[in-house]
Every structure is written in structure tokens, then in C-alpha cells.
Design brief:
heterodimer; A: mainly alpha; 26 helices; B: mainly alpha; 67% helix; globular
Chain lengths: 594, 501
Amino acid sequence: MAKPSPSPHKPRRKAKQAAHATSSLRNASAVEAMVRAPAFPLAAFLWPARGTVSQWELLPLILMAVGLFRWAAGLWGYSGFEKPPMFGDYEAQRHWMEITTQLPVSQWYFHDLQWWGLDYPPLTAYHSWLCGKIGSLIDPSWFALFSSRGSHDPTLKIFMRATVVVSEYLVYIPAVVVFARRYSRLNGVANWSAAVALVAILMQPATILIDHVHFQYNTVMLGLVVASMSSILAGRNLWAAVFFVAALGFKQMALYYAFSVFAYLLGSCVFPRINLPRLITIAAVTAVSFAILILPIVIGTLSDVRRGIDSRPDIDGPRPPMPLFQGLADHLDTEAFYYPVVEQLVQMVHRIFPFARGLFEDKVANFWCALNVVVKLKKYPTELLQRGALIATLASIVPPNLVLFFRPRRELLPLAFASTAWGFFLFSYQVHEKSVLLPLMPMTLLLAGSHGLNKTTRAWVGFANILGCWTMFPLLQRVDLAMPYVVLTLLWAYLLGLPPTSLSVYFQEGGNSWTQWATLFIHGSFYLAMAFWHVLERSLQPPPDKPDLWVVANVGVGAAGFALCYLWCLGRLVTQSEILPRSWFGTKEKAKTQ
Amino acid sequence: MTEIYPSLAQCAVVAAALKILLFPAYKSTDFEVHRNWLAITNSLPLWGWYYEKSSEWTLDYPPFFAYFEWIMSQVAKLVDPAMLKVYNLEYDSWQTIYFQRFTVIVTELLLVYALQMFVDSSHGASKRAAQAAAISILLSPGLLIIDHIHFQYNGAMYGLLIASLVLARKNSTLLWSGLLFAALLCMKHIYLYLAPAYFVFLLRAYCLSPKSVFRIQFLNCVKLGAGIAAIFGTAFGPFALKGQIPQIFSRLFPFSRGLCHAYWAPNVWAMYSFVDRVLIILAPRLGLAVKEEALQSVTRGLVGDTSFAILPDVTPRVCFALTLFFQAIPLLKLFAQPTWDNFIGAVTLCGYASFLFGWHVHEKAVLLVIIPFSLIALRDRRYLGAFRPLAVAGHVSLFPLLFTPAEFPIKTVYTVFWLILFLMAFDRLAPASSRARFFLFDRFSTLYITVSIPLIVYCSLVHGVAFGKSYEFLPLMFTSSYSAIGVVGSWVGFVVVYFTS
């Protein structure tokens, strides 16, 4: 006892002070952050971690905290809970686990299409197969063919929730963590700010509400896209192509980003000088990735044919013609060994891209649905509408992608992805309200970028996210999920200091007061409209001759707000890319970019 | 630096969001207990409250808690009148769940307020530490598990306790501290365990002159006596008029229960039972006599009463004597030096003694130790050294309260999150002690904390895979024996710190 064991805290203390000093020397903005008070509550929560705490201590805590919110949100109901006859997305995902584990590969895309037939690309099918196999080890009755339909076993729910969480922690979360780190370094943002942005991105209410509450696996696809973006940041264009093919192979919605990936990769092969070998390798890697993606389906089909398993055991007599590309069938020999593979792939494409459906499915806050309020679109022929949608979509996505093509700079990726996805969401064919997750994801990633946490960016990213959640409210309300909607949305708004909890993002010292007031006016009127809409929807029944009045109002406001978000992303992309000569901007724009 | 971030209010908002998301989580019979009390207090006249027994969950809290339920029932009437029917047993409409869960969150504001009082009462360098301790209490996994999932109103009760402890910090508010504690006793009588420390402290610091023990401050005595009498009169008076006091006391103190609760609280008796279990296996070799009738209970471990096969049985009298004895020792020092730090230490040690040696102790009572201890855990590193194993053991011992798979990730991840966050933060904030630390104590505590990881993994995963439903008592026994070692170890450590500082 005379010589007590050396106290371990003393050296630690010294090290802490040393680290403190070097970090403040290294980064002037960190010093700035030292003296000021946190600007919004999320920054206050990470306030004690400034400078001194290593990210290896911080990151596990962040991942645990966001995981808790995800799991707790998952305790609530899911889409289609005890809602026969068709149930909902939860049943669709469970059903795919059932058919992929119980049926031969060649029947996956043909089996009883009326009951949630598989209509996602093959990677989803493989993912379902894996989850279904694991789940069958626990309880085979969960995925028994036919008898398990519409199951609402509470343990099955826990298993399904766990598959979403595990998939997200294996794909989306690592991708976002890596992206946030690379993107913030690229923009010279301090580690601490990047950690704040990371929490903000991971607490994004829309993804939690759709994936962990309403039920889907969007984060897998989004995660693969983020992985693709962060590969681009790291200069690994081939990996970017592989990840992007995987994203497309998981959910065809990733097509929203395809033009931007293409524009960037092509641009990087052309500017500053034409690099043909690079272009060829990227193209080859993409093609090989696609081939690997469909390889299991091809092999499965061939082996099923050899074993005499019919892909459509429900049909007696002659096989119906292929659903698409009928002209192709005339040139093919239906008895050839490759014919079943062709048929299988055509069927897959047919299932994945439902060209035969209408312009929009439900009430969704995009341009067409909003236009439908004024002009009844049903009276126009489908072909005209399809062509109109195509032209409008192209018109909206060409500008951002041209910018990205001519200025293939890594800092511009999130803005270009966001504007392209907004264009798709607003103008394309067959949009679902959940698709708003796609433009929201890259837009939210802006928080990790340069000045990502300043008031202007926070105001716009927050506006888009809160508006996005609000447009999904009717979807959530239908399955009694209003409470998690309220809690998660308000929590995020609170953490980032956004309306309705705070107006501080609109008042900035030294900023351009005219711009600030304009933003406040525009955003404020939208926030007021949203609040007013909630009051109306809660307290008044819509008039009997217009039962959808509230939903239609929601769609109209949402579409207008999203159009603003599109314009903001595009405008910022154009200014940041410096693609237009300086002299084109007035003094006002100069002040904005500073 | 005037402001310290994050503030308590900010933490409370985020915690409230998580707690609301937990509304659909598992709820224990305590939910029905409290619903039943809402119904009893709302629909019966005062005199019937302590006689009503339609439900097996009769009213067994003191009158202030019943009044508290009555006040809440006035709001409940507007939410869903059906929950206020005494015969509506096991009623849980979603309105009832929303209402009852909301009341827990709203009444917890008392705790937030009390913790803010605590932070405001600390000055200078210790203010940051006080803020960290306050946040650790606010976010305590114990309160989350017990109040917001399992269902109880401990947040509000501990809010009152902390407010009373903080009021004792200044001489001018000593009287209010005592009165508030008296009111708390009339809400939940478990705080009687802490009453000896209050008694000694108020006697020495308020009723006797600071200069001499033999000079009595009569005015103070009268104020305190009259105040306490008024509070107890308000609580029990109406019932005393009708001669219902014996009935109330038979409800409040049901001595017919066993030594250990269904699941053993991690105290001395859990270790005693564990030794007994081990001796059963060794008995044939050692030539010890085995009481056959006890074996039936022994193999189950889940049943209510445990009796001992080898070791002598323990009577309530023995428990009571041991508890009082171990409470009395620290009180001697408190009487000699009635400082606030000694007072909190004595309250903590009273909590320890009653938790470790009490009769029919519930594992939830560990908060009675953890929460007062948190207020002084950051005084210096020696205090922190004793606090660490308690924080781990106390919270791990609460795990068996939630046994449903959906809540498993919540309880484990939340507790691990809390332990990493606060043990790390406390480590940075606690100042070095001027005295030498005890020999190897920190090493033991590190080893102890490390062991918790395989233990949790075994109890929650490995056991289920290896044995399925059989030997269900094993994980429970391991958990409580492990936790008992931690609680006893931290108690010994803290006794040394208390007497040497």
C-alpha cells in the first residue's frame, strides 16, 4: 500500500490536453466551434465530444442510439397488419421469402402473380431467399408455401424487423459512415461536424418510418447507392459501377440515379482528356456485374429445365407468348435450349417494369397527380401521357446531368443525384409516394458537405425531409402509424433546430437579409399549410362528393414544395459547379456563394 | 462557461421521444395494478379504497399515492371512462395505454426539475460533473426499464427524493427537505429504508445546535414536528377517523411473503441461496443433512418462496436486525459530522443495507442505492471506483424483468449504451483523489465489468440455444449471483471510502 498502483488517469489527461492543442491548431474552424454555443440541439448533444473524443468511442455510441430508435419504432404496427384480404408490404416481403425458399428458381417470377407476385430485381429475390432460409431454421411455419399467407405471428414480426435492421447495419449504415467521412474530408469539414451530420442523416425520419415502421428494405438499395457514391469519392470508379449495378439489382428504383452515375462516369472519362481505356473497363465491369447478378437465375432456370421442372405448372396446354418483345419471339426457336432463359428474363423485366399500369398509382405528390386536380388526365390516351412523362422527365434531368458531365467533380455528386432524383420523382411515370426517399437521401447527405450544417443548407434539407414525411402521412395514417410519424418527424426537426420547433435557421447574422426573408416566407407558408392541413384532416370529414379532398390537398402542396426543392438543388448545383461564367450572376448570387 | 451542453431539457425531450415510441412495448402486471388503482380511487368512496379486492392487485401504497391516482383519474375520465370500472379487469384499450404511459412521462418532469435543482445547487468545477450525473439519472436504464416498459411511477418518486436531498444542501431549506421526505413516505413506503439517515441528519443538523449536541433548537423541533404531523395527518387522517389504520398497515406491510422474491434480487440472500444450491451437490460428500421438503423448491428457482436445504433458514427478525445494524454504523459518522456529502453517503449506505439484507427485497429496489449514489459518485475517483461495479451489477440485475424477445434489444443495447457513455464520461470528469486508492480494487472492478459481457451473452443467447426451455433457473441464478457480487463489492468499497474521506 505504500506504493499505490500508478494512477491510470494521469497520463490520459495529459494526452487529452495534447490532442486538444494539436486539433485546434490543425483546424481553424474547430477553434471557432470551441467558443460558440451549439446552434441546434443535435450539436448540443455532441458538444462534449468536440475535439477530444476519438471517433472510435463516438461511433459505437451513435450506432447504438440510432439503432434503439429504429427498434423502438419497429414495435409499432406494420403495413397491412391484420388488414385482410391482401395485407400489405410486410406480407409482400414475407411472401417473397416464402416463394424463394419453397419454389424452384424458374418459378419465382411466375408464381401466383395475383398474390404479391415477385416484382423486384433478382438481388431482392436472393436477399429474400437468405432471410427465408434463416427464418425457416427458427420456425418453418413462417414461410410454409400457401399456409403462411397473411401470417401475423408476433415472433415472425420480430424476425422480420430484425432482418430489416441487420440488412441496414450491413449495408446502409457502413456506407453512410464511410461516405460522411470521405465527403467531409473532401470538403474540409471538421470530424466533429461530420459526426453531427452522420447522426442527422441516420435519424432521417422518412427512412425509419418507411423501412422500420411501415416495412420495406429501401435502405439496402439506398445503401448500395451510397456505397457507389462513396467509391466515386475515393476514386474507385469500377467499384462505383459494381455497387450501382447491385443497387439496381436490388430495387429498380435506383434508376432514378442512373443518369447521374452515367453522366459522372462518362464525364470522368472525357474530361479533362478523353480516356478510352477507362471508359471500356467501366463498361466491361458493368456488363460483368449484370451478368453475375442474373447468373443464379439463368443457372437455376437451366437446371430446372434439365430436371423437367416447368416454370409455370399452373398452365396446361400451349405456353402463352412472352409478355414483352413479341417481335423477338418470332426470331427465336421456342424449342432451343436457351429459350426458357430468354423467357425467364423477359418475364423478369416485365414484372420489374410495369409499363401497362397508369401514369400514377395512388395519390402521390408529383407533378402529374397535382396536374390531375386541374386537368383530368384520364381522358388522354395512355401513349400521349407516357410520351409527355418521358419528355418532361428528360427535360428535368438533362440540366443537372449535363452539369455533372461537363464538371465531373466529386463534391457535386449529392446535388446532382438529388436534382436528378427530384426530376424523376416529379415527372416520371408510375411513381409511388415512398419514392420520395430517393431524392431525400442524397439531399440529406449534403449535411456532411461544406457548410452542410449552416443555416441555409439545414433549412432546405430539413424542409425537404419534413415535407417528404408529411406527404407520406396518408400512407402511414391508413395503418394507424400516426404516432411514430409525429414522434420521429418532430424529433428530427427538434434535433436540427427546424420548424415547427424553432425558427432559428432563418435568421443568420451577416447573411443576405432579402434571401433570408424570402426563404422564411416560402418555407413558413409551407409549414403553416402542413400544420393547417393536419388540423383540418384531424377535425373535419371531407365533403361526401370529394372523399379524397385532404389527400389531394396534401399532394398539391407536396408537389409544389418538391418542385422548389428540385429548383434549389439545381440552382446550387449550377452555382457550385461554376459552369456558368461569373458575370452571369448578379451581386446577390455572389453573396450567396460566399 | 455558464451553460453546459447538452442541457437537461434537451435530454428530456429526446428521451421522451424514445419513451413514446416504446408505448406498444411489453407491459407487466404493474400496468393493470395501476389501472385498477385509477378505477378504485375514481369510483369508490375514500373509505372503500383499502378494502376493495375485486382484483388481486389491491391498493397497497400509502394514501398520497392513492390521492395521486385519484387526480390522474380525473383526466382519465375524459380519455376512456371504461378504464375506470373496477370490474373491468385486464382492460387495456389503446386509449388506456396511451394515457397511462403518458402519465409516466409527464410526471417524470418532477425528476427533471429536481435534477435541475441539483445542478443549480452545485458550483464551480463540480458543476459539469453534477450535470453529467444528473443526465445519467435522467437517462437511467433502470428508470427506462422499470417505468417506461415494465410500468411504474418511480421517475416522479425519485424526483421528490432528489428534490428533498438537494433541499438538504442549504441550511435555510432543511425544513422543506424533511417535510418533502415525509410527503414522499406517504406516497411510497419503500423510502422508509432511507428514513434513518434523514432522522439522524435532521436531528443533528436541524434540531440540535451546530455548536453543541446538548443544546436543542426548540423552535426548529416544533416546526419540523408540526409539519410532519400535518403531512401524516393529511395522508392518514381521513382513514384514522374511520379506524382503518390497521387495515392500511396490513396492506402496506405484508409480512407473509418469503425471504427472496420470485426472482432473487442481487443481495446477500441471493448469495446465501446460491451457496445453498452448491452445497446440495456437495452434501453427500461432506455428509451434510439435506432437508427433503426444500428440494422441490430448489430445482425450480422460479417459484415464490425459497427455503434452504442445507443452510439454516433466515427469519424476518434476522433480516431486520442485520439491516438496522448496517444502517446504524454509517449513521454514527453522520451524527458526528453532519455535512451534506456525509448525508448523501449515509442515505446511500442505508439503501445498500436494506437492499442487501432486507426481507423480500425486489430487484427494482436497487434504484434506491444507485440514484442517491449517482449524486456523489463524481466527488473523486475513489467514489467512482465504488460506483462502477454497482452501475453494472444493478442494471444487469434488472434484465430478467423483461423477458420478451421484442424488448431484448432495447434493454441490452440501451444499458450497454448508457454504461459506455457514462462510465467513459465519469472517468473524464471525476477529479483525482488526494488519498491513495485501495489496493487492486480498480483491477477487480475492471475484471468484474468484463465478466458481464460473456454473462449477458450466455444468459440471453447461449443458454436458450443449448438447453432450450429446461434449466430455466440457471441464467436467473447466474445473473443474480453475479450482480450480488457486484453490489456487495461496491458496498464494501463505498463503506471504506465513506469512512476514510
